[in-house]
Amino acid sequence: MIAPQPGIGDWYRLSGGELFEVVAINDGDATIDIQHFDGTVEEMDREDWEAQWDDGLIEAAEPPEDWSGSVDVDGEDDLPTGSEVPGEDATPRASALDGLDLFE
């Protein structure tokens, strides 16, 4: 069977059940950068990719429901709301550059 051409953002599963995502493809070096769900990034030769696919050690997989496990992404709930953004009632603070004469 011919190994599929991986695309950036495609998810796969190793035979042990570990999920990973293709994050970069370098055609010049014939390498594929993959990021495991735990955040570990590694490089794989295209020949190794094809051999592992042929041996059934890599298979296509659906992205996990919580795909943010491997990336440092804040959820929408973490964004400040209008009431949390400092406004006119905020205590004024001096700038770190106040009193600095740049032309001396």
- Count of DSSP strands: 5
Low-confidence stretches: none
Q: Which outline best applies?
A: elongated
Order of helices and strands: EEEEHE
Strand order of the largest sheet: 4-3-2-1-5
Indicate the percent of residues in helices.
Answer: under 10%
Radius of gyration: 23 Å
Commentary on this structure:
The chain is mainly β and about 100 residues long. The protein starts with 10 loop residues before the first strand and ends in a 44-residue tail after the last strand. Strands 4-3-2-1-5 form a five-stranded antiparallel beta sheet, with helices on one face. The protein has a domain at about 1-65: Roll (SH3 type barrels). A hairpin with a 4-residue loop joins β2 (about 20-25) and β3. The chain is elongated. The chain is built from one helix and five strands, in the order ββββαβ. The model has no long low-confidence stretch (mean pLDDT about 80). Helix content is about 10%, strand content about 25%.
Short key terms for the protein model shown above:
5-stranded antiparallel beta sheet, single chain, mainly beta, SH3 type barrels, 104 residues, elongated, 1 helix
Brief summary:
With 104 residues, the protein is mainly beta. 9% of the residues lie in helices and 25% in strands.
Layout of secondary structure:
Elements: E1 11-14, E2 19-26, E3 31-36, E4 41-45, H1 46-54, E5 58-60
Antiparallel strand pairs: 1-2, 1-5, 2-3, 3-4
